[in-house]
Amino acid sequence: MKPVITGPCFGEVVLVDSYISFFGEVNPDQGCLVVQENTCFRDKVFIFRGTRGSTVAPYVIYALRKNNTAPKCILVAELEPMLIAGCVLAEIPLFLIENYKELVNSICDFKEGLYLEVRNSELLLYRRI
Amino acid sequence: MYLTPEQEKMLRGDYGWSVAKAMEIIVRVGEALGAEELVEITHAHVSGISYSTIGRYGLEFIRDLALRGGKARVFTTINPGCVDYSGYSSVIDNSLVEYQRLIDESLKEMKFKPVYTCIPYFYRAPLPGEHLAWGESSAVIFANSIYGGFTNREGGPVALAAALTGFTYKAGLHLLENRVGRVEVRLHTSTTLMPIGALGLWIGENIKHTPYIRGLREVSLDDVKNMLASAAASGSHALVILEGLTPRGTFRLEFEDRVEVEAKALEDYTGEECSGTSILGYVGCPHTSPRELLLITHLVKKYGKPRRGKLLVTIPAEFTRLYRDLISELRAMNIDVAAGTCPVVSRFKEKFDCVITNSGKALFYLKRIHGVRVKLASVKEIVKYLSGLQG
User: Do the chains contact at B32 and A5, CB–CB below 8 Å?
Assistant: First the structure.
């Protein structure tokens, strides 16, 4: 786990095991994915593989912050400059996951109600009882 | 990160708030990417200037930088806005013009060249090895792959920050050691039967490391532009090395994988079948070159004016002046020519049942943004379909 933009990271997990174009595939008013219904990341720990597509992405991420629809933090397997720029502007903690597949497998064992915390560069998973 | 005394002054605010904010963005992104220093750039291209895509918060960000004294320190061009700057289009909705004007005034205040296009290389072609800070994914991939320029996929605000400081962080594709082709892609001859945009979409979605493409022959530079833009939309590629095209000395090859692409693999990337009564043909994503305008003129003369639907062509804003006669001729043939914009960054005046386009990038975005069915076809097929000569 490598912190890219440091900050607190604790909350319910939303995992989208794919690449995301923030422009076109994210609704900044709702903090939800356009392409995958009922997937919303507002105030949650948002985990996905990486970004793709338009370089407008930083402004969409910035709008998430201004609209109060931003995730608590973002964890990705691959970094792109525009994702970092967006998180710098929006002040969203960003982390690079080194063992992404392992984490995805761990998360997929649970259906819902899984919480994640980044503490001292370590990942801690909790299940709501 | 090492900063020169001049860069330290910029960061400290000696040159004003806007320069300090811009430098902060560049340094923080650079540090996150492990850059040890900044690099001087010769050309910034700023994406994310359409009100339709960046909204009021993006507008406020740009206005703040302009109002507080930001000025371009290098040659800077800008992407399309959300309105048709010629005012003649019946397809593009100009209702956001007041908001777009606020953005445009801010950009001009900062001395950015108002080209409103995603093909900035038309105005200034980069030299091999030249450091740039470009936004607009389709322009970035073209600059790296065709001209051998060195630029990352800078997000809109980073390219803007680079324009105001004249620097960007030295990491990623600014270093030759990162410009390495790792996947050798061979194209089966059957792929030539498929729309070139489909090939780009396939590459973007299926190849994760930098590809080296063999066998891309007998295609025009406009087709290459279309293919690269499509790969940058469905994937995160900023560089696709093309055999015989990408300038030597701007990349290295260290293959880890080899794949061959056949036409069958591309079938899932050609969009949906077109039906309904309201059909839009679309050419110009990325913006058309003068050669493409001539091609469309020739094809419409040969096959007839659009009858089954509208044909939208999008061009850089300045083309209405540079190619006035050609544009007038196209308009006289019932072709809707919109300047300085495109449907990816704007809204339609009406709802279409289907869009037929030659652009893989347009296919990727239009169905997501406008919720419309999109079909890929060649420019010739689009013109023939609209004229009623092809089913």
Answer: yes
